[in-house]
Amino acid sequence: MALFDLTGKKAIVTGAGRGLGEAIALGLAQAGADVALVTNRTPADKSAAKIAEMGRKAITIQADVGDRTKLPGIVERTVDELGGVDILVNNAGIIRRTPAVEHSYEDWQDVMDVNLNSVFVLCQLAGKHMIAQGSGKIINIASMLSYQGGITVPGYASSKHAVAGLTKALANEWAAKGLQVNAIAPGYMSTDNTEALREDPVRSTQILQRIPAGRWGTSEDLIGPAVFLASSASDYMNGHILAVDGGWLVR
Ligand code: NAP
């Protein structure tokens, strides 16, 4: 399936040490890509070893993406050590749960720095390389809360609405330059991000009842959509927010 083949492509995946990002990074490597695994606190050495076993290159980059001074180094190291950048997956994200009146400005700012500001700056930095080479694939990880307000997560919902808006804005500017900028909006996936929800018997039952597929998503559920959006199979897709949600949105 040449349409989905990523052989020789160089990918950056943020938040690649665990959860959705780890699965996406391994999935891109399985499809042929060399991968820069960006992590903050979780080492990605095991994933790097698995990618090497597949016969691809992997580098690990430790960086707090909420600190924008660290972002140029991510793209520079990828270009230097992997030889370029063809795919950028902005996956790193945090969530802070408190009612709006108690949501501290610090929480708001932290969420914006990681979930939105890093996405803008990394798109800009990688986008420059991609524009120069006339091709590139950017996949931003959005959320159901790119469409909905959520409950007690005002900063997170605002950041993810903005990720959807940014994805569309960049797609408009860069489609004619050979870049495809799209987003994946995962539904309710079983990762650390949703641990509090899954442990709350009321919320977990409410959530599960609304998912037509009848189960929480897994990290592996994102591999196919990510490979698709990273590959030439999606060359005429621009600014699309692809829900991977077991049907949550259509309920
Ligand atoms: P997770 O299990 O909580 O993992 C969060 C990831 O983000 C980790 O890899 C973490 O890296 C990274 N990260 C957080 N802060 C960072 C920072 N300052 N610098 C660098 N990396 C940082 O979350 P997940 O469920 O895999 O979520 C991944 C993405 O999907 C997020 O954008 C999230 O909002 C989105 N999402 C998740 C769901 C869901 O149901 N799980 C639904 C919709 C959207 P370290 O461990 O190295 O710190």
Automatic annotation (TrEMBL):
Keywords, in A-Z order: Oxidoreductase
InterPro entries in alphabetical order: 2-deoxy-D-gluc_3_DH (IPR011286), NAD(P)-bd_dom_sf (IPR036291), Sc_DH/Rdtase_CS (IPR020904), SDR_fam (IPR002347)
Entry keyword Cytoplasm: no
GO MF, any single term: NAD binding
Domain of life: Bacteria
Coiled coil: none
Family, similarity comment: Belongs to the short-chain dehydrogenases/reductases (SDR) family.
Name assigned to this protein: 2-deoxy-D-gluconate 3-dehydrogenase
